[in-house]
Design brief:
The protein is mainly β. It has three helices and 15 strands. The chain starts with 9 loop residues before the first strand and ends with a strand.
């Protein structure tokens, strides 16, 4: 008969969130308010419908939802002798400057089925927090918001449904006819740059060895961003009443003004979920305004 459907998934979610706010008005007429909030969330897969894997690093139980699955990288091959004396992916040609992987099950070869496993942090941050400030003094007002996310990894390679992995424009020059990022060209392996961040350059690759999802391509998705900043000035009422104006305020506002993240050099928005699918990056916006009331 047909196998019956059942809800076998169990995921344990834990976390906390909190907020603190302090406000005060000084004897000099300075008002300020400071607000901070933080959210911590983690999850663990307790049970699903997969069979127990032969190798512990391939078991879904105990991993986080969205945790990446791939190889563990050892760096880049530095010589032909090193290639000749190292396990490689069966059927995939390897050259000096290509990625070297760990033989996790110790059988002398790198295999798709037995040497990949759950590695790195999930695509969703464990910590999300914010710090906001607002204040005014003698008509001058200032407000800003800092936003942060911690505890996630982003893969520069493409990882698609069904376990398909491939290069992206972040990992291969002129990928699918696209541009070649300057950082990829400048920091690729060469004989005079053996301590490179990226594999050797190639338009027509010897194989797909470098395209696989692995720790070599994971980057920290932690970030700190100045999400919003506004500075304004409200003209004194005694000035405005003379010309029939109840209130006049001018202000400058900026959004996404400053970001600290390992991903910025790759032109990746740290708030985007990944590089596999299209994402319209958040824009840096500057604006000036006037609030006028009669």
């Amino acid at each position: 008969g047909n196998t019956p459907w059942a809800n076998l998934g169990i995921v344990k979610n834990q976390g906390f969130d909190g907020m603190i706010e302090v406000s005060h008005t000084t004897s000099y007429g300075l008002y300020f308010a400071l607000r901070g909030n933080v959210t911590f969330a983690r999850n663990k897969i307790i049970e699903d419908d997969t069979a127990e894997a032969l190798w512990s690093y391939q078991n879904t139980r105990g991993t986080r939802v969205g945790q990446p699955f791939g190889y563990v990288a050892l760096g880049l091959f530095q010589s032909q002798e090193e290639i000749d004396n190292s396990p490689t992916i069966v059927g995939k040609a390897v050259r000096v400057g290509d990625i070297k992987y760990v033989d996790r099950n110790g059988d002398g070869v790198i295999s798709y089925e037995q040497d990949r496993g759950y590695v790195g942090a999930a695509a969703y941050p464990k910590f999300v927090g914010g710090l906001s400030f607002s204040g005014d003094w003698k008509g001058i007002d200032l407000s800003f918001l800092f936003q942060a996310g911690l505890g996630r990894d982003v893969a520069l390679t493409g990882v698609y449904s069904g376990g398909i992995m491939d290069n992206t424009q972040m990992t291969k020059p002129f990928y699918h006819g696209g541009n070649s990022p300057k950082y990829l060209v400048e920091n690729s392996w060469r004989e005079d740059n053996t301590n490179a961040e990226f594999p050797r350059l190639s338009i027509v690759q010897a194989s797909s060895n470098n395209a696989y999802s692995s720790t070599f391509w994971y980057r920290s998705g932690d970030y700190l961003r100045l999400k919003n900043l506004q500075i304004g000035y409200t003209f004194p009422q005694k000035w405005m009443s003379r010309i029939g104006i109840d209130r006049l305020r001018i202000y400058f506002e900026g959004q996404n003004l400053w970001t600290v993240s390992e991903l910025t050099k790759f032109n990746i928005d740290p708030e985007q979920p990944g590089v596999s699918n299209g994402y319209y990056p958040q824009q840096r916006i500057f604006s000036f305004g006037v609030n006028l009331a009669f």
